[in-house]
Amino acid sequence: MTKATADRSSNAPSTNSGARKIDILSLTELCSAVLLSALVLFFLGVRAMHAGALWRDEAAAVQLARMPTLHDVAANFQHEAFPLPFPLTLRIYTSLFGDTDCSLRCFGFVVGVAMLAAAWFNSRALGAAGPVVFLALFGLNDFFVIWGSSLRGYGLGSAFVLLTVGLAAKAVRDGTRQNAIAATFAAVASVQFLLNSLPLIAAIAAAAFFVFILERKFREARLVCLCALIPALSFLPYLKSYLGADWTIVLKLPVATSLLWEKFQQALAGEHFTIGLLWQSTAALLLLSGLWYVWTCRSKSSSEARSLRFMLAFILLSIVAYGVFLRMLSYATRSWYYLPLICAVAGGVELVSALLSRMLWMRTMRIGIGLLFVILTPLTLQQLREPFTNMDAVARKLEAEAAANDLIVVNPWHFGPSFYRYYHGVTPWITSPTMNEHRIHRYDLMKAKMIEPDPLSDVRSAIRETLQSYHRVWIVGGARPAEEGLPTTLGPPPHPQLGWAGYMSFWSIELGTFLNQHVAAGEVVIDKPQDGINVENVPLLVASGWQN
Q: Nearest CA to 438 among 416, 413, 464?
C-alpha cells in the first residue's frame, strides 16, 4: 500500500463521520419543521373552533362580498380597505360553501395553511430541510394565528408576499427568467389582495436592484425594474378609488415614528413580553450571522453570497419602507396592520438561516430555536380560545327581551356591520350618529355627519320619543362618561386639538351626558368583559323613564 493510499484510508472514517453528522442534523431539522407545522395546524384549528362570531370588520367584508350585484361590490370595495379581488374571492367562496360563521372560519384556516405552504416552498427552494425558524417566529405567535386566520385580506395578502420573497430570492440566486416571472406574478397577486403589500414589494425590488448593481450586472438590474413595474401597473385601476376617497381624512392622526415602532414591538410579542424578547433576539442573532458571513465572503461573487446580500437588504428596507407607508397613511395603527411586515421579516430571517444552514453550527442553531419556541407554546393557547366579539350574544339577548316599540341604539356607529349580521329581531334600531347604510363602514357618511351643525339631534329625538312613550331604549356599546378637559361642543371639523379623528369619541360622551341627564332608570344588562383580545366585547345597557 502506498503512503497516499494509506493517508486516504486514514481520512475515510472522519469523512464518513461528518457525513453521518450532517445527515442526522438534516433529519432532525426536517422532523423539527414537521413538528412545528403540526403545532401550527393544531393552533389554527383551535382558533377556527373558538374564534366565534364575526366582528365588525369581518362582518363588513362578508356583507360587501354578498351585495346583490358585482357592480355594488365594485362601487363600495374601497370602504373596506382591500382591493377588489379580495371581496370577489369571498363572494365565490360563500357562493360555494355558504356564509355561516363555521364556513367562514374554515376559510381563515385554509388561508393559514396557505401561509405554511408558502413557507415550506421557500425553505425547500433554497436548500433547507424545512422552515424551522419561520414557524418558530411567526407560526407559534398567537398574533399570527389570530389575525392571519381572521376574515380579512391581511392573511391572504401576506401569503403572497411571503411567496414573492422566496421566489425573488431564488431568482436572485439562480438568475433565471422563469423565477423572475414567477416572482412577478406572486407580487401582482399580493398587491391585488392587500394594499399594504406595496411597500414590501418595493423593498424586494430595491434590494434585488441594489445587489445586481453592486455586482455590475446591469441587464439583471433592468429586468428587476421591469418586474417591479408590473405589480405597480396592476394597482393603477384602484388608484382613483383610493386617491378620490377624501373621507379618509376622518381616520388620520399625527403618527410618530416612535409610536409605530412601539406598536410593531407589541405585535411581535402578542400578549407575552417573553415571546417578543425572544423574537427580536433570535432575529437579531440570525441577521448578525448573515452580516458576518457576507463580510467574510465580501470578495466572493457566489450565488449564496448574492442571495444573502439580497435578503439582508430586503429585511432592512422592508422595515423602513413599511414605516414610511404607515406614516403616509397616518391611521391610528392596530396590531394587525403589522401582519404583512412581520410575515415578510420572519420569512426573510428564515431564508437567511436557510442559506447559512450548510454550516453545522447554523443548522444546530435553527433546531435549537425551533425547540425553544415549542417549549413556549402553552403561552399562546389562552388567547386562541378567546372569541373576537360578543355581538352575537348581545343580538340574541335583544331578540329575546326587547319589545317591538322599544328602540335600540348602536353606539358608536361602526358596530353597525356586526349588529346588522346578527340581529334579526322586530325592535327598530339606529346607530349613533344615524346612517342609512349598516352593512359596511361608510366613513364618507360619517364625514357628512361631522359637517352637520348637530349630528346627534335625530338620535336624541328618537330616544326622547321612545322614553316619553314609556318604552325602553337599549344601548349596544354603552356610552362614555364625561371627561375633564374636553370641550362641551366641538363645532365644525377639524377641531384645533382633536382634529377630525376625535369626533366619534366625543359623540359617545355627548350621548352619555344626554342619557345621564334625562334617563330616570338604567341597568347594565351585559357588562363589558375584562379579558379577551378586546376587539369587540360590547356592553348592553337599557334605559327607561324620561326626566326633564
A: 416
Residue ending a domain, choose from 362, 384, 406: 384
For residues 95 and 98, give the distance between their C-alpha atoms in angstroms, rounded to a whole number.
Answer: 6
Residue 118: which of 69, 143, 155 has the closest Cα?
A: 155
Task: Check pLDDT > 50 for residue 14.
Answer: no
Could you read off the pLDDT of 407-433 as tens digits, one per residue? 999 999 999 999 999 999 999 999 999
Indicate if 159 and 198 belong to the same structural domain.
Answer: yes
Reduced to 3 states (helix: H, G, I; strand: E, B; else coil), residue 286 is: helix
Judge if 189 and 96 occupy the same domain: yes
Instruction: Output DSSP code: residue 139.
Output: I
Q: Where in the sequence is the domain holding 532, given as residue range(s)?
A: 391-546
What is the grid cell recorded at 369? 430555536
Residues in the chain: 548
60, part of any domain = no
Closest Cα partner for 208 from 182, 185, 175?
175
Contact 402, 396 (CB under 8 A): no
pTM, whole model, 2 decimals?
A: 0.88
Total number of domains in the chain: 2
Find the DSSP H helices in 376-411: 378-384, 391-401
Show which of 325, 350, 384 is a domain's final residue. Answer: 384
Burial 321-344 (b: 16+ CB within 10 A, else e): bbbebbeeeeeebebbbbbbbbbb
Residue with cell string 370641550 = 487
